[in-house]
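Lecture 7 notes: from sequence to structure.
We start with the chain below.
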Amino acid sequence: MSENHTRPTIAIVGPCASGKTTLAASLKAKNLAARQIAQEHSYVPNMWEILTKPTVLIYLDASYPVCTQRKSLSWTVEEYETQKHRLRHAYANYHIYIDTDELSADEVLQRSLQALRDIGIEAG
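Predicted structure tokens for the same chain:
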């Protein structure tokens, strides 16, 4: 970031079990203001924006099979697709996109930190 001394705010969205909560906790541990937003459950398309007015929006993505396995979810493909539909506004406005299907939590964190550095936000 520039000489602005305001702490950047990071919002994290994605379908259930994409890694939002884990990433938010990991970024907070690095002294970054990160918040996972349950946008996938909201009928308000820009809830992520209203709640946080973030400096950066991170969109974590994961496929239906991976999400289902990670959390032992008993949901249908239609429910997953409904979540993806509710995330479409966030998808259209993300700053950082990470497909988490093949990544460990640490790899998601490292990619996030690198992408944040690339736009001028350093952990500290």
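Points to note: The mean pLDDT is 94. DSSP finds six helices and four strands in the chain.
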